[in-house]
Model the fold of this input.
Amino acid sequence: MKQFLSAYDVKSIPAIIQSALEYKAAPWKDETLGKHKRLGCLFMNPSMRTRLSTQIAAQQLGMETVVFNVGSEGWAMEFEDGAIMNGTTVEHIKDAAPIMGNYFDILAVRTFPGLKDRDADYNEHIIHQFIKYAGIPVISLESATLHPLQSLADLITIHESVLAKSITNKPKVVLSWAPHVKPLPQCVANSFAQWVNVWGEAEFTITHPKGYELDTQFTKGATIIHDQEEALNNADFIYVKNWSAFEQYGTMPPYDGDWMLNNKKLEKTNQAKVMHCLPVRRNVELSDEILDGTYSLVNQQAANRVWAAQAVIASMLKT
Ligand code: CP
Done:
């Protein structure tokens, strides 16, 4: 694997889930695979789970990791070709990325959408510039439109729970929009939809208020229902996430009803397990009673971030 930006960079999703589970069972089984190799982790915005799990994963493969908080500690970076840099940006990606390509064996990058210019965000201009100029394999630690390591961890978690719940048919998985106090990217929702659709091992429904439709390139294949109660009927898994509008890009159109999940809404489900990528705004996106209850998978999801990262880094090291 030369790059890991989306579900389409993985040859086989079942195979990489299996690889992750093998690392979960034996974390140090490939502890020399990355010996004398270095992973650079670049963060252009905050992170807890992604930063820590990626470092742990690399360490268990014998790699050394260097973390660089570009957003808060580095020179302000310019990504526009031909830019006259007489403003606030100090260093062009054309100059910075090749140096990182010299320092590291694999580059992992977290970028973020501006949520102002949809075309710029959905072209994934920033992460593609890193790929173009670094000249080494690149892992997305979340980009403008997708969060592939999160989605892989999510599928690992669903796979484990399907086995634990002895579900024999395809589980019903519902991606359910949740309220938030500010506009958030569509990355996690886009990415989860993409991975579930490519995986093909679930009956997939998405529910959200009108005005919050996601880009159909990620959702095609899913059933879209605007009535949350109807969508949750017989659900085995509910993935809760807020996102801002794709059409009226980056805005928060008004909506009717109470979209926060609580125990009452779980009554018509198939004892559904509840997922969220975290961080979560308690009692805005998800109620305390769900997060602190027995149906929550959020800690298992976060724990599985290590094994997802380890499977992906190992796959790159073996290429
Ligand atoms: N889920 C996730 O990516 O968490 P962080 O933003 O803390 O890395």
